[in-house]
Automatic annotation (TrEMBL):
Gene name as annotated: CNTN2_5
One Gene Ontology term, aspect cellular component: plasma membrane
InterPro entries for this protein: FN3_dom, FN3_sf, Ig-like_fold
Region (Disordered): 198-222
UniProt-listed GO biological process terms: axon guidance; brain development
Signal peptide: 1-15
Gene3D superfamilies cross-referenced by the UniProt entry: Immunoglobulins (2.60.40.10)
Record's protein name: Contactin-2
Keywords: Disulfide bond, Repeat, Signal
Source superkingdom: Eukaryota
Pfam (any one): fn3
PANTHER family hit by this protein: CONTACTIN-2, PROTEIN SIDEKICK
């Protein structure tokens, strides 16, 4: 027992190698190596530190760095001639006053990334609606990415505005197309695309311009009426006419909602009426009727049609008004499901 204890505390060189070797990242011209600080019981005595060895992958000679700090867990090697994102091999051992321990396993670490050196080309932007454009481009080759290409940044700014004040959105991956929304109608935008990696963005592509479409009419379909029989509701509305500064109406959309389920019917502009099934249970259906066209969708007119045993109820509701000031009509008795209501806007 006495002898074992003596051997255990007797100072000697470290006998195990540090673990958790890794690294990467950092600023230009840096190679960052990290490891797990060695616990005191493995230090085997005073004068403790680490010896870090590294070399460019596939080269012969190792460079060694002596790091005489017990608590170190990170080393930053700086060299002006380090190329961005190049692979290195690293290994590490511990030392104390008695000598050096064994080297750890080798680990692969990359030097710091730098921004991509080239930008996307052939950028193309088209207006989808008054509020949305689609942008596409020729992707950047991975070789010129100076690191791992993460995606693309789309910058867009209004004509007469400064590019420095551009709004920007980033793709999450390497797709070469993106939609940008939240734009102003009938507005000319400049657009440029840049590749990015963890170090930042590269140079911008040549810029292009795009003009968003005129806004959709800001009126909902008017004079909406509906008629329900036992199994269906037929709804009618008046045409929405676009003004000179609005985009043409190409048709109507009727959104049908019942018990959390929705289905959308898209009609061309020749149709201004539609029949839809009424639920057999005591539920209700919500209908939203709106115009659609090149500028996008117009505001909706909302109708709620419900029925329960012996009672048919309809609520005329202006979808965009925040005050619920619309009248509620309650019909009871013999009238049941044959209801017609005329509503002027
Ligand atoms: C920097 O790297 C070059 C080329 O690999 C090497 O010759 C030089 O010794 C390095 N300098 C330092 C300070 O490590
Ligand atoms: C730009 O995109 C539009 C729509 O995607 C396409 O019709 C057009 O051909 C494209 N133009 C160029 C130059 O790629
Ligand atoms: C509303 O529609 C009904 C039926 O389609 C029609 O008779 C009536 O003239 C319309 N009212 C207005 C104000 O357009
Ligand atoms: C109710 O109206 C729908 C659509 O107009 C029609 O197909 C159906 O036959 C009608 N049902 C009754 C009971 O009148
Ligand atoms: C469109 O023009 C009308 C007058 O003709 C004006 O009242 C309205 O604000 C304009 N709308 C837009 C979005 O510019």
């Amino acid at each position: 027992m006495y002898i074992i204890l003596c051997l255990y505390i007797w100072p000697s060189a470290p006998t195990v190698a540090p673990s958790g070797l890794g690294g990467g990242g950092g600023d230009h011209n840096e190679l960052i190596v990290t490891w797990t600080t060695m616990a005191r019981e493995y230090q085997n005595g005073d004068g403790f530190g680490y010896i870090l060895a590294f070399r460019k992958k596939d080269s012969q000679s190792w460079m060694e760095m002596r790091i005489p700090h017990v608590e170190s867990s990170r080393y930053v090697y700086y060299n002006d001639s380090l190329t961005p994102y190049s692979p290195f091999e690293v290994k590490i051992k511990a030392f104390n006053r008695r000598g050096e321990g064994p080297f750890s396993q080798m680990a692969g670490v990359y030097s710091a990334e730098e921004e991509p050196t080239v930008g996307p080309s052939n950028i193309n932007a088209t207006a989808l609606t008054a509020f949305e454009i689609q942008v596409s481009w020729e992707p950047v080759q991975q070789l010129s990415a100076n690191g791992i290409l993460r995606g693309y940044e789309i910058r867009y700014w209004r004509q007469h505005e400064r590019e420095a004040a551009a709004d920007r959105v980033r793709t999450a991956g390497l797709e070469a197309t993106a939609r940008v929304s939240g734009l102003r109608p009938s507005t000319r935008y400049h657009v440029a695309v840049l590749a990015y990696n963890s170090a930042g963005t590269g140079p911008p592509s040549p810029r292009t311009t795009v003009t968003t479409r005129k806004p959709p009419p800001n009126r909902r379909p008017g004079n909406v009426s509906w008629k329900a029989n036992g199994s269906a509701v037929t709804v009618r509305w008046d045409h929405v006419k676009a003004m000179h500064n609005e985009s043409a109406v190409l048709g109507y959309k009727v959104l049908y909602k019942h018990e959390g389920q929705t289905s959308l019917k898209v009609l061309d502009k020749a149709k201004t009426s539609m029949s839809l099934p009424l639920p057999k249970d005591n539920g209700y259906v919500v209908l939203e009727i709106r115009s659609w066209g090149e500028g996008g969708d117009g505001p909706a007119h909302e109708i709620i049609v419900s029925r329960d045993s012996g009672t048919g109820m309809m609520v005329q509701n202006d979808a965009s008004s925040t005050l619920s000031s619309q009248p509620l009509h309650l019909f009871t008795g013999l009238l049941l499901f044959t209801l017609v209501s005329l509503v002027g806007l």
